[in-house]
Amino acid sequence: MKLEKVKELISEKFLKKPVEDKRKLARLLESHNFDLFIISVILVDAFVLGLLASDVFDVYYSHMLFLLDRLFMGIFIMEMLLKIYVYRKAFFKNGWNVFDFIIVAVSSVPYASSLIVLRTFRVFRLFKFLDHFKSLDNLVDTFIKLLPNFISLLAVEAVIFYSFAVIGVSLYGDVFKDFSTLGSTLFVLMQAFTLDGWASSIARPVMMVFPDAWLYFTSFILLAFLVVVSFIMNAIITVMDHLKK
Q: What is residue 115's DSSP assignment?
């Protein structure tokens, strides 16, 4: 009887200790100070990546910068392993954890050591900590609320661009090379939409051959900008309603 009780006490002791250790580790990983530490590492790592992109620093300090980059990468990998150890399957049920895991995994591939583009993805992990800064958090929240309206804007503009591109190819494609294909016409319309010398370099040469072409260009620009103005007005109303709440 005593032997069984001793075994029970020993098993409880050895089972309880890992659970307590996990709880302590979980409190550490979820603490504000640990978040600030990871934010600091990400910012310093971003600075190092910037130096690696510079020819001057990359020539004279390439070895030191490479070691620092590997150190930061090791910290990120250790962070992921500790979180997976503590949370197990629950780790992958959190969207931000999955986002972190993908970013770290992508930037850890062997080719990332030579492709700075892949390593730069680690900077995007800062998005996770936006809730620590209320102003930035509000900005992202507003952006998310405006996203459906922005997608609607892109859909309407896509229809307008496509329709006028087809018309442009049909009317001016046989004479002007810029209107010979649907792709080149879309690029011309994009230039006209940005008002980048559209009158002198695009509209006037076409109007020299087709005097009524002004109707085509002005109709496109007015219609495209009317949609943009509608989006801006709707966005202002959405933001005002959000601020009232």
A: -
Give dist(CA 232, CA 212) in Å, integer.
31
Q: What is the residue range of 105's domain?
A: 31-130
Same domain, 61 and 108: yes
What pLDDT is recorded for position 55? 67
The answer, yes or no, to whether residue 234 has pLDDT greater than 60, is: yes
Check if the beta carbon of residue 65 is closer than 8 Å to that of residue 45.
Answer: no
**How is residue 193 written in tokens?**
């939409």
> Model's pTM, two decimal places?
0.54
Confidence of residue 190 (pLDDT cuts 50, 70, 90): very high
Same domain membership, residue 228 and residue 139: yes
- How many other C-beta atoms lie within 10 A of the C-beta of residue 134? 9
Q: Which CATH number covers residue 206?
A: 1.10.287.70
The total of structural domains in the chain comes to 2
**pLDDT at position 49 over 80:** no
Residue 30 has φ and ψ, to the nearest 5°, of -95, 0
Rg (CA), the chain: 29
The number of C-alpha atoms within 13 Å of 190 and in the hemisphere containing its C-beta is 8
